[in-house]
Hints:
By secondary structure, the protein is an alpha+beta fold. It has three domains: 46-248, no CATH class; 259-338; 344-482, Heat Shock Protein 90, CATH 3.30.565. Helices cover 48% and strands 16% of the residues. It is built from ten helices and 14 strands. It has helices at residues 9-19, 47-95, 194-229, 231-244, 260-303, 309-337, 346-360, 380-397, 426-429, 449-459, and strands at 97-99, 105-107, 123-128, 135-136, 156-161, 169-177, 184-192, 344-345, 365-370, 375-376, 401-409, 412-419, 463-468, 475-482. The chain has a five-stranded antiparallel sheet with strand order 4-3-7-6-5. Strands 9-11-12-14-13 form a five-stranded mixed sheet, with helices on one face. The chain has a two-stranded antiparallel sheet with strand order 1-2. Strand 13 and strand 14 form a beta hairpin. Helix 5 packs antiparallel against helix 6 (309-337), helix 6 (309-337) packs parallel to helix 10 (449-459) and helix 7 (346-360) packs across helix 8. The longest helix has 49 residues, at 47-95. The two termini are 35 Å apart.
Amino acid sequence: MASASSPSGGRKCFFSRFFRRKKIEKSGNLVGENNSQEPVIRPTGSLTRRLIAISALWIFILLSGGGVTLDRVLTQAVTDNFDSQLDYVLAAMIASSEIDPEGAVRLNRPLGDQRFLEAHSGLYFQVSGSGYERFPSPSLWDRSLQVNPMPKGQLVRTYDSDEFSDGTLRVMERDVRLPGSSVLWRFQVAEIRTSLDNQIKKLRHTLVKAFLILGTGLIVITVLQVTIGLWPLRKLRREISAVRNGQASRIHDRMPNEVAPLIEELNALLSHNERQAEEARRHAGNLAHALKTPLTVVTNEANANSDALKEVVLREVMTMRRHVDHHLARARAIGRRGNAQSQAEVWPALLAVERAVTRLYPHATIDLAGVKDAVVRIERQDLDEILGNLIENAAKYGQGRVFVTVEKQGKSVEILIEDDGTGIPENLRGQLFKRGARLDTDKPGTGLGLAIVRDVVEIYGGSVTLEESEDLGGLFVRLALPSVH
Length: 485
């Protein structure tokens, strides 16, 4: 193989058109062109207010649930304590009861609470039995407690009753058969719930007041926590504003552990943008310098009215075209490299290149082998152009056999391209990566193929080397690209 450069003229145009899939937007602009208009960022609301609102809602739910539960527990405890006093009086009343000679119930000793003797005092008792007059406490005066049937299977019952107009009664009653009597006696003790309700009311007032103070305190703590916790983000905003205004080149202030990775990524992005800008300036300078000499030659020939002006113009225009193509390829690759999601499947790209090359060189046979699921970190268009240049050179300068093998090597994917040409001496292989370098001038070409391949591959963090094929005897190209998996 005497040379390894891209074809020129019609073949090159055909190959470039085959793989360069320009996507046209509805507006007619190419995808990827800078739109000069900055994207409009629509805020979704304050993060501080959102966190405070969520915390306040959660505090309200927890305190409400806890307050209701605690209210029920304490209310039940106070009520049980009230009922235990009634139960004590009822037990004392039954213990002091006996049957008189006429078969009625009487108390052999008075109950200790003075309120049983005061009319309408709010504390009452009553004993009643079938066939006998009711035995009420003096506090009942001209009233009596209602006697309702006891639920089946229940000996003691406690309930609230509205039978008196001066307040709700808490009634505890029990059916007992006293010794010496066959009558089932109903013993009842009742007390107005006023004291019980006042205790419950006071308890609930205290609970509501305490929980309001607790909730307010928790919300204040939440506001302080959110404000202090998000303060580094406000500080970060000022630092980014300083970078944008040119007051600083990097963000150097120390940040919490949760924000530090973001700072590292921002600084890395700033460094990346600076490298991009520096590369753009360097390429623009190189292009300007490369075009300066051909333009000077054309200008001098035109001013001298040289007879060879046409040939000089065509020659220098081709030189300028090579430089423009080279720098445009680098600029496209650099621009696409910034996309962190760039990835392409190797096998479909190889199949597409095989179809295109076999159409250009019908005599060539391209054999593909190796891993079929390899995915590399590169734009598909750039991968097509790289593989297209390398495989087309192998078909163009070989004798008709091209082997392409895909292998995974650690974090890289290697694409091995071999041909059955005459090969290239080791001391001349490095020259092929220079712009415009050609070892065979018999076949058309511009000498830019491998130079562009090398530059684009290195932009994506890969490498390309030239060796000698042991199987076919021609050139062996080892292309390594970063793997996605």
